[in-house]
Specification:
The complex is a heterodimer of chains A (324) and B (496). Chain A has 324 residues and is mostly helical. Chain A contains 14 helices and 2 strands, in the order αααααααββααααααα. The chains are: A mainly alpha (324), B alpha/beta (496).
Chain lengths: 324, 496
């Protein structure tokens, strides 16, 4: 009995060692090191104002990345979420004069659900892969953006909208609350609930999950819907921050979202996912940009460095997995 | 005896916490078929991975033709005349036979075009010299498993392999294809090629091998001339105790009420007029050669394959089950034949694999009760004697037999009344087989209805209460309690 307990203790210790290993936590360690370096080289970095700012700036991409983490966990992804965020803004601005503020918000979320349902259904029921399907939906949504805006920037946001960009609860801006709140909720759902287990199982082995009695198609579709709703929430925050909707708004952020999810250790082959590490990765990318500004390197280098970090991190994960 | 073509001496390999091989010797004579047998985890695969350069050995040496050989990468092994025919046949399905054989080693004309004519001449010369022929322009995906295997053999022969390692070559072959393969092996043997046969089928060794090396727990037990030993003796050395009868006693009483009936089911041309009745408390065997349609029956019962004719009755009520989800809800569960492809989540820990079909039961509210999940897994580890360091072990790291027990545990946890086991003993060792058969009988005695699908006639004869034989999608025999025997099953499956 005591031996068993000892073994259990040992396995718990080894589980902890494994959880904190470089392989599992690389992104977190890099983030911490980067923060220390920036804190040492610039007084401004650790000021609460600056920290809040960083999180706020990261919030739109962050919310998208959280949705993407859910999708990647099932071994799917969606290239249209960035455009969809911009599309949400346009829809709201066009609808407010017609049906009013709250109905316009609800309608935009309803449209997001619909887009998720359709995308998911094409992928699961017809069997087109997610790269091709979402390249298609990306093009459609971008096209709709141009048609609906006639290529111009739409203004006419109501003051209520601004609250989603800069409103505060207990002096914390709404985007920060939405981003971190969804992060905590997402981490809980993905790794501590039945639904999350289903997502990860399907990503790990779709056929086995089906035979084990999971409703695979429906669950995958639901992940697309969730990701789509996240895109809409991101779009609402974006609209609240920049107060206008441009035909190109949001386009391109899907790549940062995918980058962040992958950096956070979510496998593009599914089966593994961590929302909190996605949040860390989003912040890492944002801090990088912020650091460049503080150190006067210029933000132009951000994408360049981002690319190297992405490949470096994935190479590390892959290498360590292969060694196992 | 003539000089060895290959000698592995005192090969040792350790993995963290395990000695996988402990000073193992193996020597292969020219033109010899040498079988290597052992339970799962005995070290067969590790030994072959060292020979093929996939793993590096910790200690020991390898000699080829008496010369020390340096094998530290797969390319070294190929260059030095060691050819491996893998169980999962790594060929490109969309390419032709010719393209696969010369893949990565294409000869080109001066303009850089692939020199088809030269490949073809070479291929035909190769085929002629070994008496094997597969049309060079067939695409791999259109070939049978047996034909693909020959392509693999041709591939290693083209690279001038002297020693050909075959890993479970007969596992997916039916009787006829197996005999054809053995014929080919004998031809090649006559041409001076040596074979290392890794297998679980002890009977086959006595058909094809000259000598057999028995491994157990990473050590070599013995190497014997085949005509100086017997299957019983080999099995005894493998499992370390004298083999009892492998099969549990069959049910004495007649089985209970009919629970699942299939009536004149048809699926295109694949399944024709299939009828069966499964009773409570019985093990019904369903057998046939590979490709006879047995797996289709399992899949259509659980709604994973649509049927277009006939009807299914559950407890006497006409029923249409259209997905595995529904099947499990109604108490029907399938153990798929492809354990790794469609049974397990290899990167999930054991406990999560066990709970997969029953998460709702373990965690009635959305939040997962991890402790309960692991406790349930621990119960099954004990009950089914799964060998694992803990319930949190990744299933990828378990041996085949233990992996199969994990999938079984998942089924049992669902409390299904009808269990469909499709090739439950494929690729697992003798002792695990014995345990699984015993478990099946205990479950039947508890009142479960079991449909046991297998292409191992001996296992069906030994375990099932009644047997149905399929051939090309049609029933050729339905054997009752007293009629069931291996000979009858084989006859019904292979002859018209």
């Amino acid at each position: 009995m005591t031996m068993k307990r000892q073994q259990e203790g040992q396995s718990r210790l080894s589980a902890l060692v494994k959880a904190l290993s470089l392989q599992n936590m690389a992104i977190v360690y890099v983030f911490i090191i980067l923060c220390i370096v920036l804190a040492l080289s610039s007084d401004a970095f650790l000021r609460p104002r600056n920290i809040i700012n960083i999180i706020r700036q990261a919030s739109v991409v962050g919310v998208l990345a959280i949705g993407m983490t859910f999708l990647l966990s099932t071994a799917q992804f969606d290239l249209a979420v960035g455009a969809q965020a911009g599309f949400t803004g346009v829809v709201i601005l066009l609808l407010i004069p017609v049906i009013g503020f709250i109905p316009a918000l609800l309608a935009s979320l309803g449209i997001a659900v619909l887009i998720g349902l359709i995308t998911g259904a094409i992928i699961t029921k017809i069997g087109v892969n997610s790269l091709v399907t979402t390249l298609g939906t990306l093009s459609i949504i971008k096209g709709l953006l141009l048609v609906l805006t006639d290529g111009r920037i739409l203004r006419g946001a109501t003051p209520e909208l601004r609250w989603f960009g800069s409103g505060e609860i207990l002096s914390i801006p709404f985007p920060v609350i939405a981003f971190l709140g969804l992060g905590i909720l997402g981490e809980f759902v993905l790794n501590y609930t039945r639904y999350g287990r289903y997502l990860l199982a399907i990503g790990g082995n779709r056929e086995a999950s089906k035979l084990a009695g999971l409703r695979v198609d429906e669950i995958i579709i639901s992940a697309f819907v969730l990701s789509s709703i996240c895109a809409a929430i991101g779009g609402i925050i974006l609209l609240g921050r920049i107060y206008s909707a441009s035909p190109l708004g949001g386009v391109g952020t899907e790549f940062i979202a995918i980058t962040a999810a992958v950096l956070g250790g979510t496998s593009i082959f599914g089966g593994e996912g961590s929302v909190w590490k996605t949040v860390v990765a989003v912040l890492l990318l944002q801090v990088l940009g912020n650091g460049f500004n503080l150190l006067n390197i210029g933000a132009n280098y951000q994408e360049l460095i981002q690319g190297f970090i992405m490949i470096g991190a994935v190479a590390l994960y892959t290498y360590q997995r292969r060694r196992q | 005896m003539s000089r060895s073509i290959l000698e592995m001496r005192r090969i040792t390999k350790t993995f963290p916490g395990v000695v996988a091989l402990d000073r193992v010797d193996l020597d292969i004579a020219p033109g010899e078929v040498h079988a290597v047998v052992g339970e799962n985890g005995a070290g067969k695969s590790t030994l072959m991975k060292i020979l093929s350069g996939v793993y590096e050995r910790d200690a020991g040496s390898i000699f080829l033709n008496g010369q020390p050989a340096d094998i530290s990468a797969p390319a070294d092994a190929i260059r030095q005349g060691i050819g491996i025919v893998y169980q999962d046949l790594p060929l490109v399905p969309a390419l032709t036979v010719l393209a696969n054989i010369y893949l990565g080693r294409e000869e080109t004309t001066r303009l850089g075009r692939i020199d088809r004519a030269s490949h073809l001449t070479r291929y035909e010369r190769l085929c002629d010299s070994f008496g094997i022929y597969i049309p060079p322009d067939s695409r791999i995906r259109d070939l049978s498993v047996a034909e693909r295997q020959l392509v693999e053999i041709l591939k290693v022969l083209d690279r001038d392999a002297q020693v050909i390692v075959m890993d479970e070559p007969t596992a997916t072959l039916d009787q006829k294809a197996k005999q054809a393969l053995f014929q080919t092996v004998r031809q090649l043997q006559a041409a001076g090629k040596s074979f290392i046969f890794i297998t679980h089928f002890i009977d086959e060794i006595f058909e094809i091998a000259d000598r057999v090396t028995i491994l157990k727990d990473g050590c070599r037990v013995d190497t014997l001339e085949i005509d100086q030993t017997s299957p019983q003796a080999v099995v005894a050395m493998m499992i370390g105790h004298s083999p009892r009868d492998m099969f549990p006693e069959k049910a004495r009483a007649a089985s209970g009420a009919p629970i699942l009936q299939l009536r004149e089911i048809g699926v295109g041309a694949r399944i024709r007029d299939f009828s069966m009745t499964l009773h409570q408390g019985e093990i019904l065997g369903l057998t046939g050669l590979v490709g006879s349609g047995c797996s289709d029956i399992g899949n259509l019962i659980i709604g994973n394959l649509a049927y277009d004719r006939g009807s299914v009755l559950l407890d006497g009520e006409p029923t249409r089950i259209s997905s595995p989800y529904e099947a499990i809800k109604r108490g029907i569960c399938l153990l798929p034949s492809d354990r790794k492809g469609s049974g397990l989540l290899l990167d999930f820990e054991l406990a999560k694999n066990v709970s997969l079909s029953s998460i709702k039961k373990i965690s009635p509210r959305q939040v997962i009760q991890f402790k309960r999940e692991r406790r349930i897994a621990a119960d099954f580890i004990e009950k089914l004697r799964i060998v694992t360091p803990s319930a949190r072990q990744r299933t990828r790291n378990l041996s085949g037999g233990n992996q199969q027990k994990v999938v079984l545990a998942r089924m049992l946890l669902t409390d299904a009344r009808i269990l469909i086991l499709d090739e439950p003993t494929q690729g697992i060792d003798v002792r695990a087989k014995e345990e699984i058969f015993l478990l099946m009988r205990q479950l039947a005695d508890q009142g479960k209805a079991i449909l046991f699908i297998s292409s191992e006639f001996k296992e069906i004869a030994g375990v099932a209460d009644r047997g149905i034989v399929l051939r090309n999608g049609a029933v050729t025999a339905a054997l009752e309690r007293d009629d069931i025997s291996e000979a009858r099953l084989v006859a019904a499956a292979t002859t018209l």
